[in-house]
Please model this.
Amino acid sequence: MSGARLPAIGERTPDWRIGPFDAAALQAYAAASGDANPLHLDDDLAHAIGFPAPPVHGMKLLAAFEPLLCAWRRDLFLARLSAKFVQPVLRGEEVTLSGRVLRSSPEEGVFLRLLAYGATRAPALVGEALMTAPRKFRP
Amino acid sequence: MAGAPESGETRIGPLPVCADEERVMRYRRETGFPDTLEKIVPVAFPAVWMAAPEIDSAIRARLGDADVVPVHESQSFHYFAPLRVDESYALTVSVRQEAEPPRLSVNASVTTIGGEPRLHAETLLRIVPRPACLA
Model:
């Protein structure tokens, strides 16, 4: 795939801690992304739905995997990224992101399971990523 | 641009979109990229385009008069080639409603202006009733 050694199956990315995010950070993400869903910004709505605080945008968490993956392997491109948002990370919580290699081959690239969790350590986001060599990912 | 074909899907586009540098850099800052001069479009950046008024209107039309809150259930981005800063693209979106469980499936395709595929993205939004105390 590339001249560099491919990561082995089971290899883990370093844990990557982000947050905690305050109301201003969620407002800033909403402005940058255009996602102004009030669920993330309105305390009353969050309380009424049963959350002690508004949840962080799932997309803010998913997008944050790219800096992690690029720092881990700068020689590979992120070609696919996906996630299920399993349970909310709430405003004010620190979040830990991590990845583990499930498959790795020159032909198919490096397939990782992604996980994000907040203060409870229960999975908040379960995702997948495919990283591939530059020459396989070019217009 | 929006219509409701026989399939029950609402199709929007193609809409012209651009990975303009200011928005790309702002999105990078808000999603934890290092503060460098690197001009790479984040994989999740096309989420920004999903806030287009045409798409928002189609989603609202699908929800009708229901007093509900959309909750992001899942998201995927599948790239065929990377996007480039300051390049223009064509975005085509379809919105489909699912009854059980109630949710919206939003599928987006991005191509170059010349029609070469760049990515496919899928968004699932769970539709949750707004609590009565806020209705």
